[in-house]
phospholipase D (Aerophobetes bacterium), 181 residues
Amino acid sequence: MRKISLLWGIVISLVLASPPLLALPAEDVEVIRNREYFPTLHRALQEARESIKVIMHSACYYEEYPDSPSNILIGDLIEAHRRGVKVEVILELGIWDEVNRNNREVGRLLSKEGVAVAFDSPAVTTHAKLITIDGDVSILGSTNWKYYSLDKNNEVSVLIKSREVATEIEKYFRKIWNSCP
């Protein structure tokens, strides 16, 4: 028993003394709470000039509520595409019928307007909610693009201004994109 404790002590000491495996520089980090998410993301999408990459677990378009925040964000992607921004979106397609139905509808709307859309493999759940903009800004967090997430729930995200972080996130995005059926 003493040998095991000594071994764990050595392992813990090495871990605590080691530098982080992946520490990337960031120009700025902003915590986005609850109702701050929509205006922050809306503004960032409108300012995009080169590229937008989105992975979203659950997105909804509400035909009966054209001015809903999720509809506006979906419209922002379409408008960015029309401005010449390269927009790519990955949506979950898995075991939840409601999520599948909503994501397929959002995917159809975006695709119809020329936005590149992929659905993940039904064999894996893509629960990520992330956006990169212009290879410089990343927004990561818990917020789905649907009514409760945007208007009611306690949600938190971070906006990170860092080319290095965006590069790592975009590598992750591309890995999933390339695995989509």
Q: What stands out?
A: The mean pLDDT is 90. Residues 163-179 form the longest helix (17 residues). The CA atoms of residues 132 and 138 lie 4 Å apart. Residues 25-179 form a domain with the Endonuclease; Chain A fold (CATH 3.30.870.10).
